[in-house]
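Methods — Computational structure assignment.
A single polypeptide chain was analysed. Its primary sequence is given first, followed by the predicted tertiary structure written as structure tokens.
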Amino acid sequence: MTFKEQAAELTRLEAAAKRRGISERVFERILVDVAIQIEGAAIPSSPEKMLAEIKRRVEPPREMKLGEP
């Protein structure tokens, strides 16, 4: 994932947070919390994993339909 793609994904996540009513301040706190979590991890993390964690915290969980694993 290029830096440009990472920036685009982060912008998309910020827009998703706003749509869900998450304030800019709370979104920034999510970013800081994820950075601290990744920094303290024993195994270095990729930007993709950081974005995935931010997405998990911002976007609502997907509902599973009957019969889906």
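Note: The radius of gyration is 14 Å.
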